[in-house]
Amino acid sequence: MTIIPVSGQAFAPYDVVVGRGLLASAGERIAPLTRGRTVIISDRTVADLHGPALARSLEAAGVQTQIVAVPPGEGSKSFAELERVLDRLLEAGLDRKDVVVALGGGVVGDLAGLAAALYMRGIDFVQVPTTLLAQVDSSVGGKTAIDTPRGKNLVGAFHQPRLVLADIDVLATLPAQQVRSGWAEVLKHGLICDAPFFDWLAGPGAAGAKGDPAALEWAVIRSVEIKSAVVGEDEKEAGRRALLNLGHTFGHAIETALGFEEAALAHGEAVALGCALALRYSVREGLCPAADAERAEAVIAAAGLPTRLSQAGTFGADQLLALMAGDKKAEGGALTLILARGIGQAFVAKGVDAASVRSFLIEEGAKA
Ligand code: NAD
User: Fold this and answer.
1) Closest ligand 1 atom to the C-alpha of 143?
2) 192, 254, 270, 304: which sits with the fewest CB atoms below 10 Å from its CB?
3) φ and ψ of 39, to 5 deg
4) Where are the domains of the chain?
């Protein structure tokens, strides 16, 4: 078991605990944070698989518990589900000294975190992430949000958890595509700022992409260390936190063009493809050695993740460019991209020339 402290100037410090069998001891860790009552927010799939173990552990520690389960999937990040969840918290009579527990993937974490931020002007919440993506990314850093018909994550709040319990054992029930999808975020962390970690992911660590628990455990630990260091320096994404968006501007555009509903591409698959594109674009601009982009591509592909536009679908260059410029990370019409000078050397590139990105997308197979 490893404890990674997360601290920053603007929020109370908290621990991320990574290890095996943590659900069984979750009650002991959560009980001191509450006056004796909690509501577990989950989705129906996760509630069935892991809700009873967590509830038992809490009850054994003397914490009165009930589970509120939302439908699985992105659709639950909605005003309607947020309202329903808040109503259930009121019905349960939680007060400001109680805690909400989010048991699930990024969808549940984002929804429950926002509900906790709003309930009685903010109560504490604990993240128990059950997808690899949630363990290495969304459960740490305090971003919470729901979607609106106008776009993803447009309504939300910064609300840091009080504690994060990342139990590697719950990943055993995760479908293979979800493991691969989370693995993309792990690879992303190495690509951003840790070349030795990327070497490990390319070698012995590669077993993690196939679900090996020992490899997954180290991958989660190192990813959380990297993410928490970045978030500690820059909670609200004024600067360095934007590095965590490596692959996301290309990736979001691809996801949006495909339509989220179809789920033709998991989020992590889009991020993996986006990382490969960001590195190749960096090579095109003379910023990054070609050998680094080729190696990154080989490692991403070996994990069963896409690296080429043609693997995702057919796209128009102008369509992708418009979606990239519309990304909320774009500033004043200029394109802001996360590019790299090599593996482990990502940087924020502002004012990127849209025409050169358009040419690049055409070279990559997008239609002119
Ligand atoms: P998810 O929460 O929808 O989970 C994916 C699927 O896996 C669901 O069907 C769920 O029921 C199932 N599942 C979860 N845990 C399981 C388990 N242990 N065993 C079996 N099935 C399990 O998706 P996700 O990929 O975890 O999260 C995606 C969301 O995260 C997006 O909404 C995205 O915007 C958000 N996100 C937030 C941040 C942040 O910083 N807040 C960062 C990245 C992504």
Assistant:
1) 41
2) 304
3) -120, 130
4) 2-173, 176-363
Q: How far is the CA of 328 from the centre of ligand 1 (A)?
A: 21
Distance 133 CA to ligand 1 centre (A): 7
Under a CB-based contact definition with an 8 Å cutoff, are residues 140 and 228 in contact? yes
Q: Does domain 176-363 fall into CATH 1.20.1090.10?
A: yes
Q: Quick check: is 153 catalytic?
A: no
Ligand 1 within 6 A of CB of 105: yes
Give the predicted TM-score (pTM) of the model: 0.95
> Which one of the listed residues 28, 237, 285, 294 is annotated catalytic?
237
Ligand 1 pocket, 279 CB below 6 A? no
pLDDT digits (tens, 9 = 90+) for 300-351: 999 999 999 999 999 999 999 999 987 555 545 579 999 999 999 999 999 9
